[in-house]
Design a protein that fits this description.
mainly beta, 3-stranded antiparallel β-sheet, disordered N terminus
């Protein structure tokens, strides 16, 4: 579990590390095998209200190829790809407030000349917003989903401006 940005932390960002434990700490999985990871949250009496964040890192570690380690190792050249995943972990403690609003939504062309929706998502309060940004239009009398994309606005960010490309329906939008 690691802090989001230890070199440039936001002023009011609270670390999750001291308050969470997980098990097992290490494991080996065969391809397609699953494993449950258990998290234990430890809240203290003097814990500040707010949102605590960190990342849970899953790191693939490959075993050395046969004949590439030890004193009698042969010369070997190869490339291995290790897939790593960072999973955000959130904990909220105490009262939280959140207000989200959309502003200045309009259809535009993105930098590649494709159809897009430009929108500002405003956030206020003490909690981050995690959700799905969805654009709809009416085409030939029916409601059509232009796109659905997960978006996050962290509590230290008051707004984000997005340009979201989409493929228009064959009948166009009205």
């Amino acid at each position: 579990l690691s802090f989001i940005d230890e070199e440039h932390p936001a002023e009011n960002l609270k670390k999750l590390e001291p308050h969470i434990r997980f098990s097992p700490r290490r494991l080996v999985l065969a391809p397609g095998q699953a494993q449950k990871i258990r998290f234990l949250v430890r809240r203290t009496k003097d814990m500040e209200q707010g949102e605590y964040r960190g990342h849970f890192y899953v790191i693939q570690q490959s075993a050395p190829a046969p004949g590439t380690d030890g004193d009698d190792a042969q010369t070997a050249i190869g490339i291995e790809f290790n897939l790593n995943k960072s999973i955000p972990v959130y904990m909220r403690h105490g009262e939280q407030t959140l207000d989200i609003s959309l502003a200045d939504a309009k259809r535009v062309k993105d930098e590649d000349g494709k159809d897009a929706v430009q929108v500002t998502i405003n956030r206020s309060g003490t909690a981050s917003a995690l959700g799905i940004l969805r654009a709809l239009c009416t085409s030939n009398g029916e409601e059509v989903v232009l796109f659905e994309r997960p978006r996050t606005i962290y509590h230290e960010t008051p707004y984000i401006k997005r340009v979201e490309p989409y493929t228009p329906p064959a009948g166009g939008c009205t």
